[in-house]
From TrEMBL, chains A, B, C, D, E, F:
One of its GO terms (molecular function) is metal ion binding. Gene3D superfamilies: Ureohydrolase domain. This is Agmatinase. Residues 318-337 are annotated as: Disordered. PANTHER family: ARGINASE/AGMATINASE, GUANIDINO ACID HYDROLASE, MITOCHONDRIAL. Keywords: Hydrolase, Manganese, Metal-binding. Binds 2 manganese ions per subunit.
Amino acid sequence: MARYGTQYGPDITFLGVERCDWADPSTYAGADVVVLGAPFDGGTSHRPGTRFGPSAVRQACYLPHDGSRPSVALRVDALRDLLVYDAGDVEMFSGDAVRSVRDLEEAVAAVAATGAVPVVLGGDHTIAWPDAAGVARHVGQGRVSMVHFDAHADTGDVEFGSLVGHGQPMRRLIESGAVRGDRFLQVGLRGYWPGPQTLAWMAEQGMRSYEMTEITARGLDECLTEASAIATDDCDGVFLSVDIDVCDPGHAPGTGTPEPGGLTARQLLDSVRRLAYELPVVGVDVVEVSPPYDTAEVTAYLANRVVLEALSGMARRRRDAQDGTTWDPRQPLLEGR
Amino acid sequence: MARYGTQYGPDITFLGVERCDWADPSTYAGADVVVLGAPFDGGTSHRPGTRFGPSAVRQACYLPHDGSRPSVALRVDALRDLLVYDAGDVEMFSGDAVRSVRDLEEAVAAVAATGAVPVVLGGDHTIAWPDAAGVARHVGQGRVSMVHFDAHADTGDVEFGSLVGHGQPMRRLIESGAVRGDRFLQVGLRGYWPGPQTLAWMAEQGMRSYEMTEITARGLDECLTEASAIATDDCDGVFLSVDIDVCDPGHAPGTGTPEPGGLTARQLLDSVRRLAYELPVVGVDVVEVSPPYDTAEVTAYLANRVVLEALSGMARRRRDAQDGTTWDPRQPLLEGR
Amino acid sequence: MARYGTQYGPDITFLGVERCDWADPSTYAGADVVVLGAPFDGGTSHRPGTRFGPSAVRQACYLPHDGSRPSVALRVDALRDLLVYDAGDVEMFSGDAVRSVRDLEEAVAAVAATGAVPVVLGGDHTIAWPDAAGVARHVGQGRVSMVHFDAHADTGDVEFGSLVGHGQPMRRLIESGAVRGDRFLQVGLRGYWPGPQTLAWMAEQGMRSYEMTEITARGLDECLTEASAIATDDCDGVFLSVDIDVCDPGHAPGTGTPEPGGLTARQLLDSVRRLAYELPVVGVDVVEVSPPYDTAEVTAYLANRVVLEALSGMARRRRDAQDGTTWDPRQPLLEGR
Amino acid sequence: MARYGTQYGPDITFLGVERCDWADPSTYAGADVVVLGAPFDGGTSHRPGTRFGPSAVRQACYLPHDGSRPSVALRVDALRDLLVYDAGDVEMFSGDAVRSVRDLEEAVAAVAATGAVPVVLGGDHTIAWPDAAGVARHVGQGRVSMVHFDAHADTGDVEFGSLVGHGQPMRRLIESGAVRGDRFLQVGLRGYWPGPQTLAWMAEQGMRSYEMTEITARGLDECLTEASAIATDDCDGVFLSVDIDVCDPGHAPGTGTPEPGGLTARQLLDSVRRLAYELPVVGVDVVEVSPPYDTAEVTAYLANRVVLEALSGMARRRRDAQDGTTWDPRQPLLEGR
Amino acid sequence: MARYGTQYGPDITFLGVERCDWADPSTYAGADVVVLGAPFDGGTSHRPGTRFGPSAVRQACYLPHDGSRPSVALRVDALRDLLVYDAGDVEMFSGDAVRSVRDLEEAVAAVAATGAVPVVLGGDHTIAWPDAAGVARHVGQGRVSMVHFDAHADTGDVEFGSLVGHGQPMRRLIESGAVRGDRFLQVGLRGYWPGPQTLAWMAEQGMRSYEMTEITARGLDECLTEASAIATDDCDGVFLSVDIDVCDPGHAPGTGTPEPGGLTARQLLDSVRRLAYELPVVGVDVVEVSPPYDTAEVTAYLANRVVLEALSGMARRRRDAQDGTTWDPRQPLLEGR
Amino acid sequence: MARYGTQYGPDITFLGVERCDWADPSTYAGADVVVLGAPFDGGTSHRPGTRFGPSAVRQACYLPHDGSRPSVALRVDALRDLLVYDAGDVEMFSGDAVRSVRDLEEAVAAVAATGAVPVVLGGDHTIAWPDAAGVARHVGQGRVSMVHFDAHADTGDVEFGSLVGHGQPMRRLIESGAVRGDRFLQVGLRGYWPGPQTLAWMAEQGMRSYEMTEITARGLDECLTEASAIATDDCDGVFLSVDIDVCDPGHAPGTGTPEPGGLTARQLLDSVRRLAYELPVVGVDVVEVSPPYDTAEVTAYLANRVVLEALSGMARRRRDAQDGTTWDPRQPLLEGR
């Protein structure tokens, strides 16, 4: 049996949802979502600690761990309106990135094969390669577009002598054909990496990267609208990869490679909710939460809410599709939503 | 004599203002404002620590503790233009919420009876019940409207088997008649609590709750304008209750139940200043500052400034009323204000 | 059903042992030990946070949470050689100390009634009253002696207007007759509390309190030998109450009322192991771990090991009784033990 | 030889750029920029720690310390496109502010005399006096305008019995004639200091101070445009002095006198970049980073990026001047910039 | 009037004792002890922060701030059995060490002149010069011996170009004749400073320095006995100077120049108590507590207890002198002491 | 060229000693000691962070980084009396433990081949395998004995599916023949790992492991004397491997797998000094310092001093051998040593 439980610390599930075994689909028959933990920091280029990310993100909440989270804003309870399981962590030895990545892809692919949406809790961003590749094995190579929130492009080639690492997953995904370069949308880039050569390679692939300067100048909403149009053009599903360092270090200090000048937590939550509501999400990962660098669990809480907003958006999307209704952000809270 | 001093740590007053004894009105004759500490965390549902809030908020300032704080923006010195006293802490044993709440209401009511505005430093939000109820005993049941900044509605019914706790004060206030449900304005709600049943109860009471989604979509200023109109409609005074967790955890990490995606510190300070300037404030509390979870006193400083903005707004309101002038936020600082 | 799970955070058990329901003895039939969590800080006179103690102590370990901990020194695996269950937390609302204490005593008494040894994870020291009283209901009033590791005597009468609090449990136990004053052994006292009047009361009860000065002058071993003789004189069992602040704040910073000049961690672990090996332990509590004040989990780890040393000592005691052997601390590790 | 290396800790340079000796211009012949460390906190009125600022700001980066930082947004590598040296720290004994300030001015003046732009890493804001005065000795008294980002006006007269301190440098600069009062632009002021008398003095000097209220009401961009016009009117160069506390404490907790309600990190970085791109910068200092109060290096990272944005703006300004091009913030990242 | 109150933060006194003005002896007529704060870190060679030492040490206690601390071990209440006042802080601008030191000596001398024992709360160790020199002005030059607990000899000559600093006070005291070199006893030295030249100078002065190696080999008690004999040989009083870094960093992390391998907290407290009980103490300082580097107030608590043990030892010394009794550390706590 | 500099952060050397390139022996001709950094945490089973160990240990000192550290106790300046170089870090990608270990062994062997003593700064304890194996390639297989300070035996077989990790190096060394099992001395073991099977394997190898219980019962000095005799029996050199977690977490919180009840810092420093003075040391590593979990650099300081005590002991050993003298720990500091 493949269920591993929590690799570090006690065996818990995301906010108390039911457990399952990813290798035994009968344990999550009919699931809408399966949470997987990827407790890995062997691919990070600077501060480690993301191996404790899955555990921290699963429990960063002041409410009871009862498998229920009714969204005040969206009026859905994603953990109940959707059938959500937690398959525990995939065992990932940080000292062997190649093996760890391979094992994770198997688990993600197994989940995706059942039609459930895998939601992977990182771990450093190395895992985006197996995450999206595992989904693409089900949806189809090149049929998944990527919306990628991050301060960094993560399109490096070789780092520390390795093809596998948290600065390279997006290149691997494009090179392998899992995701088309011209269906690759990046939001929040900034800073001093990568250099011109890599940016040129990105341009050649047809990637569309929204740097913070453009976002500030044009507005985040406009950029997201544009990105959404690209993402849904001739693709069958969207993978949402959220590196918590897309937010400003003031909002997300607990991460390995913080880059000042990012989104606010509010912006990220609104963006994730909107995309999950508007787009056909087929996979999600939330990565780079490093608890040893966090303060008062601020970053873990944010990542926990990113997961919940994604799930709540998906739940509301389904309900509105069934009911023929539309969610209006301007409607007063207590006038029904 | 009822003056207790600081319950925890040395006996200090808010930024060095004069001391008084709430039970002996002669010690604060003519006072405009009386500060009270409510060092209580027996009602919190998660992280404690707010018992140290009054002490932390009283002293979180890098300037001399001399009972003077000239506002650069408003050109008033609230601690001197108003007659402000600090009555010390009401003794509140966290292990006995019912008794603590009762004792606090007595103190607040005694202060309010003199016409002074009580400014209560929490403590967890449990204290909003005795705070506003104590004021209503003077102003009149149902004659006080409430403007409530918070991530949470705090309208729960029974939690942990108790009617008294930091998730329930607003329900108690409405049920008791102290505050009318349709004069209850909430700003900054978000997240995954309370559930539909409680939201339905809130709607029935005619509450008006501005969730962050609406605030983002419509703009905070517009929401506040709308709320102010309701608050002053057929009411004699406004109670301002500021839960520091209305701000994003990045701006206020030191709190018990942080909810990502909140206001910025700038937004909160501007809002409190504006409301104190525009509305007839009869009571204030600033709650949920938990020093053990704070970093570099960021949260305590913010709460200290919330108090000062409220007092400065009140001082400027009075001066403008006397002078027939109006404060213009767009005026350059050095061109007279 | 009375099993509550972990009151704060996810539902976990002590290092992964099996779960049970204290109210249903069939769920722990034949148990040697039942762990109970007492997540309470409503009785603390200073820094709170012990409500998170049970959760922190249950999981403060770098080894897998697999319900096994083979002691290198004692060559027993207490979690397997003994039948150990974890009944989760008793719900304790910190805002109602009286009710919380009453509920805890019920749970402890229920466990003790089955012959299992209750091991209660605090929580502040308030809980020693219900802990030892609950055990005495089974063993007999006055038939349980107490060995109490602490910086403080905890023999106060009324604090903050309450008979219930973390400075008073030992007085309540003696006054109620649950524990005889002259079978009350205290180890590690120091500092500036209580005052002469309380010390006089203690002397009248025939208590034997080893202050750090005496311990330093005479040696800890000699003091423990003396204490053990008293504890087993005309009593049927020993309750071991370990306040983590008996250790020096350098070894246990995460606590509410730290008093410099205490035992080292090594001294405490050796003492607890020795007493559990030599004496007929009928109940244990480990209290006053306050995670928000801890650094790098140092204090939680120490408390976790205090529990393990107590259990390992008990397990070895039983094995040696069966085998007619004796444990020799001087024997080299690898020469069989 | 005057090169001192790093006063505290190992001898390092800003992100690995080459070393030089400020007293020997041949060691930095042709330099565009010379970094100087000012490890001083003897002038701070509250929390110290800025003595470790230069060391922290030099190394707060997750990328290799290789003297290269290609700006993703601006498409320049400031550390390579400009000739940048690091002269190490000026020895500054915090216990002798007068001597320290004098020595620093010598070093800055020596650098400025060569035509290189001194970039001084503080240290508390005391150093702005020698920094700008040192530059003015080269550019001309009254020929340098000042753009000053700060929560505080720093125009006090005497504090703690001294003319030298972090609350007074701007007054010293104006009084000495180094900088004209009516070419003094302040951005981000707020809070409760200084009082009316000092504000009156500032008005008399013709200073233009943008308090946060005006910035919020009018927009930061509009204010900067206005300020830029004044700064370049009949002046030969602009000194840019950035006190990190201009940002909100949520974005910059590691500082000595935090004032809630400031700019976001994004706003500061955009402003610095814009000004460095648009104005003829002749000197820069970045001050008040206090590592002991920082969390997860958030503040040090921000200050490091402020330096890089200033240098990158300068590099792009030069390139555009040479190429006759203009940088467009709205241009997509991968469409060439 | 010279009373300054607390230079940083609110105006408090040591554990709530009465206030006085050092410049007006009538305000402390008959005092046995006068506490003075020396909030200075301008002389430290590494981590600052000791400016907040006096404030931290005054309040680091979980008991009420009521001017009473009955010693459990010694059965005296030093704050009541002795007449103890707190004169607040001497204003010490860290940016001007020379002036600060001069002003402090005046204050200490004024207190000593009345016959009261000055107890000075540092501040960095720079202050030992004015502290002991101020006392010697009353007792007589060369008539005061020094017992000095420290990891460092503090006998440097010139550091950072200054005669005044925390590495040089002991040299200044000997050079000035205030204290005889051969009545200078040092306890706890270790590490890698000072070098051979300074050690040779120390030997020439006839100093007696107990390095940790000797202390470990011979035992602390034996060393103290030897030191006490020297200290009382042809001298009229003993100054006790306690640098908190004499303790191991595990017991005292909050300090500027930590040196591993020091005393335990228990050893320091026992030593200070013993010396205060056995020797004619005429002055005390407790220095180098740096709150920004402290964790959970561990170091501040320790320093607070060092003060209390010194005072309690003095109080018991007086009582035993009056009663003709002797304190026996081996006596059981509850058998009268 | 193989010199890599510091892998993380700026390029620094141990306390400022000269640089060299391990692959080019001409750069360290005649060296007595070569420091190597092993910035690796890919082998840790719990908390990571030791990748920052080499950088932290190199600089954790409040004294100038000038390549000189005169030992007060031993009267040698190890960094000058010995010829000490720092070769920087070996590049070790934490995501590839096998490759990293192989590369490190090459570097260590290259250094050892020149006759210099390699001193390796970890990194997690995985590195002890390449460290001692690299030395054995020079000294001879089975000709190096091992003295190993640690809370853990590190003799696991396979962990996380890998032969390489921080729980297994000692087994690899014995299995490979590099170190004889019966010349393997372990000091400080304790806790709950490994289990009986592994202990049996250890016994079979003839290992001698001093668990804390035996150390406490017999005394550390006696145990070390016994161990030294074994270590020098028919072996040509001693490798000293110091896992910082041998100390109590109170003295060394910044580590990955803390085990309460360890040595004090004083005990460790004395032990390392004594062994380096008495035994023919041919290699040293100091491992498991994890800066993200450290507080106030306490652990990094301790590790820095462990290195210095080892080097100082070696330097004094050589001097005494040359002079025919002996060091006496009981000799007073200032009477010549």
